[in-house]
Amino acid sequence: MPSQDPPYLRIADHLRRRVTAGEWAVGERLPSRAKLAESYGVGPNVLQRAQEALIAEGLLEGRTGSGTYVREPVPRLPLVRTRTPGEFPGEPAPDGEWESETWALTPAPEAVAHRLRIEPGDLTAHTRYEFKLDHKVLQLAESWEPMAVTAGTPATLPRYGPWHRRSVVERMARIGVRVVRALERPRPARATPEQAALLGLSTGDALTVIERTYLDDSGRPVETADLVIPDSRWEICYELPVDAPE
Predict the structure, then answer these.
(1) What is the mean pLDDT of residues 33-48?
(2) Strand locations in the chain, DSSP E?
(3) What is the pTM assigned to this prediction?
(4) pLDDT-based confidence at 93, cuts 50/70/90?
């Protein structure tokens, strides 16, 4: 029976087999999109979608103004999301390798304000993190904390103070704020030029952005963050407890 898959998926599957068979070496440029589209009897848009699927897999990489190349294989590492906050990657840990920069009194953008349930323009502490492994940046994060929660305490600025290398959960606990829940919303994204430069990717490479918001025991959001995770390097897994029936 003929395949019911869309044409771009059939072409992506055939290109995948050609690449893995060694028709093009690692680092070698594939024929032009127009030439490949002609060889498969499809339009350039269909061929582009097929190549984008393989770029998302990490098999190919697109280089602006140059073409599409076979990418050096990079093993994907498991990134386990659990109910235990404070674990690298995704949250600063005392023994993790990371760098950060914090700006106080930052007006909350509208989308951030919505997540924090505050008014747009309300003041936040805004922090950017770079998480590293073997001195290479493998993940990014951008965090906002309402100044109304931490102002006047040693926890006001995540990068500074006596608890600057502690997790959000631990820093909040030190000022009497008990974080009990984390809400996460994963969404697909493409690397911006800035993200690509920091992560050693190509602009447009596939990412997963996890919008994470911490809530205290009253249900109040006390921090929200965007965790930027390259799809070619991390395989996101969720480990959730299951209550056994009594």
Answers:
(1) 93
(2) 60-63, 67-70, 77-81, 97-107, 123-133, 136-146, 179-190, 206-216, 221-230, 234-238
(3) 0.71
(4) very low
